[in-house]
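User: Second chain of the day. Same drill as before.
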Amino acid sequence: MKKALLILCAVGGYCLLELGFLLGMLTSIFWRSTVLRAHEEILFWGQLLIIPGLAALLSRITYGSENWLRRALLIIVLGAALAPALITLIIVVGVPLGWAFSVSKALFSVMVQLN
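Assistant: Same format as last time:
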């Protein structure tokens, strides 16, 4: 059980690291232009599939071949859906807070209390 928990934490840490890379790429877009270059777009969409793909592979290695196809499909579908949902949530919460902070610190403190 310890090994499974360690691998689960490692995969979760890897996913958070990759999500940080994705967010770093998104913030770099705001500093120059809003148009993604071709390699950035491929990297962006590819990473959203690589993250759950690695989790599915490690699940296969860790838990063996029993029900591995069902597990892999579940991991890939949920992983590919949850990463964009998390990015959207961060943007939906972060952009208004950033705007409120730039306008007024009092407005920002009121908005933080609402979250």
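Residues 68-103 form the longest helix (36 residues).

User: Great, on to the next one.
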